[in-house]
Amino acid sequence: MNLRRMMFLGCCCLPFAGVAQTQHGAEQPAVAIEDNSFFVEEAFNQEERVVQHIFNVLYYRRPLETTVATFTQEWPLIGVDHQVSYTLAYAHLSAPVVGGMGDLSLNYRYQLSAESSWAAVAPRLSIILPTGNAEEGLGMGVVGFQVNCPVSRRLSDRFITHWNAGMTVFPGVRGIDASGGTMRRTLPWYNCAASIIWLAAPTWNLMLEATMNSTADLDDNGGVVRSTELIVSPGFRYAINLEGLQIVPGVALPVSFVDGEGRVGALLYLSFEHPY
């Protein structure tokens, strides 16, 4: 099994592939930061003629020292019901040291229902292009497909919750069996997530997110090996509102459990949102 690839994709592909949603379109009971969660996808599409640029840096020291940086840019498409975005990823992995670009995600989301309904729902479809070096553990080496369904509901004047369920499929991933022969397998991944956000003030939020990712890779015998990661992440975000520009920095301390082994990481977040 390519442990470096599992570490990189576990940090990058699932938490950030759906990235970056903005809370617009419905009247809010109280003023709230119009921004994104860090690990859980929110079900609010981008406002018309407003673009958002999102930077994330996620760091874990062990079992392999892993740093993953992502950049996402979101655009509304034909009104607020349709949204397109892309996500670029860069990783630096240890043992041995490897650094480079990861796979590229192209994302489309449809606003199925708005927050004025019982809940906001915005299913997403992503195509994952094999731009990363699979031999070095920076990608899967094949075109992948991901679906995710985020649901968001305002519970009260001060609390909002988000829920996700999704699946990623990598068809025909190449591997080498024990005899040295080449074989290919289709690898399904699964994810679910939930969060609760306290709207403590108009310009700052406290966040608690949890996500579970079930990933798969090939072992040296050509078999499929599954791994499960649970991330529980307390976090904080703060909005700086300037004329025509909103800047939102954020920090989180994700605690990850991979097959029973725990580790504590650090996440830095920065968003710029402005009209065009």
- What spatial form do the alpha-carbon principal axes imply? globular
Q: In what range is the share of β-strand residues?
A: over 45%
Q: Quote the CATH topology.
A: Porin
Tally of domains: 1
Uncertain regions spanning at least 5 consecutive residues: 13-28
Please give a structural write-up:
The protein has one helix at residues 3-17, and strands at 50-60, 66-76, 82-93, 98-101, 104-110, 120-121, 124-129, 144-154, 159-176, 182-201, 204-218, 224-238, 240-242, 245-252, 255-258, 261-275. By secondary structure, it is mainly beta. It is globular and about 60 Å long. It has one domain: Porin (Beta Barrel). The protein is 5% helix and 59% strand. The protein contains 1 helix and 16 strands. A hairpin with a 5-residue loop joins strand 2 (66-76) and strand 3 (82-93).
